[in-house]
Amino acid sequence: MSGSTQDRITAPWPSAVVGCLNAYQALGYAVLYRCQAPDHDEPLPALVATEEGWVCPDSQCAYTQNWACAEHGDGRATAAAEIFADLLGERMTPGAAATAEQVVTVLAGNRFFWADEYELHQSIAGLLVAGGFEVRQEVPLSTGGRIDLMTGRVGIEIKVNGRPSEVMRQITRYAASPDIDALVLATTRATHRIIARTIGTEGVVNDTPVTIVQINGMAL
Ligand SMILES: [Zn+2]
């Protein structure tokens, strides 16, 4: 599950695949395919699938893209994401609390694509929900601060940025919270490996087990 290659499908696409790709884009919670032409303002336009490939919805724009990830063309990702979309906005989703080990399994076993940290939160929460786990987002801690995700008493902090020293301080603070029995730090940054060198990939901070997971995938 590493490297830059993955299962891709190349246009022309059958109409069923076009339907799946557009359904996926319409979910809107993690739009992966956006126009890469340099002349648009943020947010970049979400591409529209046609049998000939992706096109930009802006009729003045000639951008096209002829590939998509296979899982977005066969409905798999849409089915998983729809479950999550139904639950968006809920403080708590139904399901069992995941253990830290289960969270790590989900994180390590998937590839992620994100435009910003919030999209990555949504993707991770969506996968946990699709796995039948209870998830809360932006959970306030009694010791101050809000942790990105909680399942049961396992806290998940997601980082796409930040100096290692800042991240370490945050982890130390969260680990001291009586609300949290175990912490998972999910990071996209290679520079955060220095934290793993300090505390170990499965270390203990303030008597709380902390597991560090490197996220596979790419920023868009
Ligand atoms: Zn465009």
SSE topology sketch:
Elements: E1 8-10, H1 15-27, E2 48-50, E3 53-55, E4 64-65, E5 67-69, H2 70-73, H3 76-87, H4 100-108, E6 111-114, H5 117-130, E7 136-140, E8 146-151, E9 154-159, H6 164-175, E10 182-187, H7 193-199, E11 202-205, E12 208-214, E13 216-219
Helix pairs in contact: 1-3, 3-5
The chain binds zinc ion.
Structural notes for this entry:
The two termini are 18 Å apart. This protein folds into two domains: 8-76, no CATH class; 89-219, no CATH class. It contains seven helices and 13 strands. Helix 1 (15-27) packs parallel to helix 3 (76-87) and helix 3 (76-87) crosses helix 5. The chain has helices at residues 15-27, 70-73, 76-87, 100-108, 117-130, 164-175, 193-199; strands at 8-10, 48-50, 53-55, 64-65, 67-69, 111-114, 136-140, 146-151, 154-159, 182-187, 202-205, 208-214, 216-219. It has 220 residues and is of the alpha/beta class. Strands 7-8-9-10-12-11 form a six-stranded mixed β-sheet, sandwiched between helices. A three-stranded antiparallel β-sheet has the order 2-3-4. Residues 88-92 have low confidence and may be disordered. The chain binds zinc ion. Zinc ion is lined by residues 35, 37, 40, 45, 56, 58, 61, 63.
